[in-house]
Amino acid sequence: MREFVGAIDQGTTSTRFMIFDHDARVVASYQLEHSQIFPNPGWVEHDPLEILERTGEVMRGALSSAGLGPADMAAIGLANQRETTVIWDRATGLPLANAIVWQDTRSDRIVAELARGSNGELVRQKTGLPPATYFSAGKLQWALDNIDAVRQAARAGTACFGTIDSWLIWNLTGGPRGGKHVTDVTNASRTMLMDLRTLSWDDELLAIFGVPRDILPQICPSSGHYGETVIQGTDRVAVPLTAVLGDQQAAMLGQVCLRPGDVKNTYGTGNFLLTNTGGEIVVSKNGLLTTLCYQTSGSHPVYALEGSIAVTGAAVQWLRDQLGIIAAASEIEALAGSVQDSGGIYFVPAFSGLFAPYWRSDARGSVVGLTRASNKAHLARATLEAICYQTRDVVLAMEQDVGTSLEVLKVDGGVTTNSLCMQLQADILGRRVSRPVVAETTALGAAYAAGCAVGYWAGEDDLRQNWREGGTWEPLWSEDQRQAGYAGWKKAVERTLDWVDVN
């Protein structure tokens, strides 16, 4: 009997498979990291074959740990890091190059030239996105221009482009032997190639970036039948794949943000704050993105406004991996808590430029306010504060766009297990912060979308009954303290600008 629903959560630094029951309780979870490849300054790559291998391993690991098999699974959903670009050969099934990760800035000159011309406004109007290195189209253009294997395969008609979801679904449904080359509306909306209104690839946008249409996947609703997969290394029972969403849109479902005005903030490698705008396409005047929230099969699309922050949890990893200040990410809370404040230090982790609400690809990371008394604990605390100040930037922009004030910030993601960081978030934002029992809402949202597609959950009321608060933080700072801290943050941000020449 198929009593459970699974979710692949393929993120920037790791892949996780989670199994849920009907009450949204976690039955099993298995997670593995994959390599981060930095071939040049500003370049970030992943090995698509390693990600595919990790995906199989975590599925088998979660099932084994719970004593389950594929026959116990009603459906599987997939959430993925969105803008990361993969190009492979449909004949061999092999990648033509490493995946170019969403954080990668090698397309900075491409997007700078686009932003200066009239086509930049066309991109904004059709896609809801500003020209930025963040999105897939510039990465794809760069690959077509600079990687011989990609260019030759495109000319031969054997090249396939997709974000990570397309790469995984193609392989999970057969690969070179009939795999489905598809994506969903949420991932397609992050490429700079899809028209938000028609939900289809746009000829004018394809011409701007020099992208041949035949390398693109078919765009589908987020929840529906994508095919079936047989999990290698288990009994050969096929499991339906019935949902694909970008990770942040999946988290919206996991937080049950299904009504216009609902807001959540996910803390991962970066931070992503979204508000549901229903069937309305809201054009931001304050540096936010207009994007797809989700679409179920046979229904009209639901849209969202999003504030994307490039580096939050990744800054903690930087302290661990590049500086060696901590041995594990979990150590930062105790280290940062060993001092009363940051000692006047501000850390702006603009490793990939600044995303929302600034959109400055010329910015680079900076630590300011250092004195002889500064130590690693102050830097650790400044890192947590940076996560929270960047979130405040986005919340203020969103409040201006929608015309209402946020009373409670619903949060999720790995960083939310850090109670000090969540208290700082409440203090810096001046709002109550609320975390659900299941903080990994990206996987839960993919499971919800997959389960609803096969009738495992009846609909929105079922999902709302599952949401339960697991933690809450009230602001403790005075308003004067909050305003003074934020003024220092804005000064620090100014110091990061115009560092890289992208003209």
Compact description:
This protein has 503 residues and is α+β, with helices and mostly antiparallel strands.
- Alpha carbon gyration radius: 22 Å
Strand tally is 23
Uncertain stretches = none
Q: What is the topology, as strand order, of the major beta sheet?
A: 17-18-16-15-21-22-23
Q: Main β-sheet: number of strands, strand sense, barrel status?
A: 7 strands, mixed
Alpha-beta classification: alpha+beta
Mean pLDDT over the residues: 92
Q: What distance separates the N and C termini?
A: 60 Å
Number of helices: 16
Percent of residues in beta strands? 15-25%
Explain this structure:
With 503 residues, this protein is α+β, with helices and mostly antiparallel strands. It is built from 16 helices and 23 strands. The strands form seven sheets. Strands 17-18-16-15-21-22-23 form a seven-stranded mixed β-sheet. Strands 3-2-1-5-14-13 form a six-stranded mixed β-sheet, with helices on both faces. A two-stranded antiparallel ribbon has the order 4-7. The longest helix has 27 residues, at 376-402. The chain is globular. 54% of the residues are buried. The model has no long low-confidence stretch (mean pLDDT 92).
